[in-house]
Amino acid sequence: MTTPEPTARRDWRELARRLPAAAGGVLVLCPMSELTTLRIGGPAGLVCPVQNVDAAQRFLELSDQQRLPWTRLGGGSNILADDSGYDGLVLWVQTRGFEVRRDAVRVGAGWDFDALIVETLRLGLTGLEFASGIPGTVGGALVGNAGCYGHEIGGFLAEATVLRADGRQAVLGPEDFAFSYRNSALKDSGDVVLELVLALTRGDAAAAGQCRAEHLADRRRKHPWRQPSAGSYFKNLPPREPGGRRRSAGELLEAAGAKAMREGGAAVFSRHANIIVNTGGASSCDVLRLAARMKEAVREKFNETLEEEVRYLATPGASRDPA
Ligand SMILES: Cc1cc2nc3c(=O)[nH]c(=O)nc-3n(C[C@H](O)[C@H](O)[C@H](O)COP(=O)(O)OP(=O)(O)OC[C@H]3O[C@@H](n4cnc5c(N)ncnc54)[C@H](O)[C@@H]3O)c2cc1C
Fold first, then answer.
1. CATH number of domain containing 35
2. Which of 10, 17, 79, 210 is deepest in the core (most CB within 10 A)?
3. Is 230 in the pocket of ligand 1 (CB under 6 A)?
């Protein structure tokens, strides 16, 4: 890949004008801090709302013609964006179809995940209530196999329609995703999930509603609601024995003294040692430095290596050295 020019030297407005009107709504040099829940990140060249497959294909054509890097974005709730921004196209998935087929729903990947849970429960379709309160889109949840309370979204997937990097559409089954803990083959494949079918159950809606209420209350107790964050920064550690439970990264971090740590505007959340909050004006460097200290503390105390769950977004080839 050619080394991209710095954002300031490209005429992003001119590039935006080359897009057909049908692909409208493009944001020029929109700060990633406005599109991510951590509220950090410099300007992205073009942020392209993808409401249908045609728009997605046009954006990919532009990136191909102009040899621009591109990336995918949902709700921005699992991303740390670099302060220097992203010199390329951000495909912001906003597909919003909704159709019920017996006990399954076919939905656009741009649906807000929690709003989808509310809607399916309203229709008497249960299964997703475990995930109540997870921010972001259903497409982002699928790609990261989002989960909590012992369940993961991957277990509900029947099929997904994706757009490949070469502009072709494909229908994938769960086996193509190769789901594992907070991971799927699509994290790094570059496929854009546009639509998916989730297999649900016509179950006890009252019990599911109760489960939702309990999970939301639990989240309100444990997670930051006022301060920007991206949820758990590190993945839980693999079990010691096959079939055992994952070990909580938060507990290890707490025992290693992480709750007292802070770098610039980034701090470890007072009620959960695995969450980094932006206390105001934090830079991506602040977060990277803090995360490095947290990792080092766990390595020193427990000889364990934590792996990041939050995805770092920077222009390909740009340095991620926080120094
Ligand atoms: C307060 C808080 C609590 C959280 N709790 C949980 C939790 O309990 N469990 C959990 O698993 N996560 C949790 N998270 C993390 C986050 O909400 C989830 O990972 C969420 O599913 C990410 O979805 P998103 O749409 O925001 O994805 P984004 O952050 O936009 O993107 C994440 C990754 O997915 C890719 N992507 C996004 N959309 C698509 C698409 N349509 N097609 C292809 N690739 C795509 C992006 O390129 C990126 O690599 C929490 C976050 C916060 C802020």
1. 3.30.43.10
2. 79
3. yes
